[in-house]
Amino acid sequence: MSVAQVFEKLEQNFNADAAQGLDLVFQFDIEDDKTYHLVINDGTCKLHEGANDDPSVTLIMNSDTLQGIVSGETDGMQAFMAGQLRAEGDMMLATKLGELFKMG
Question: Which ranges form a coiled coil (predicted)?
Answer without folding.
Answer: none
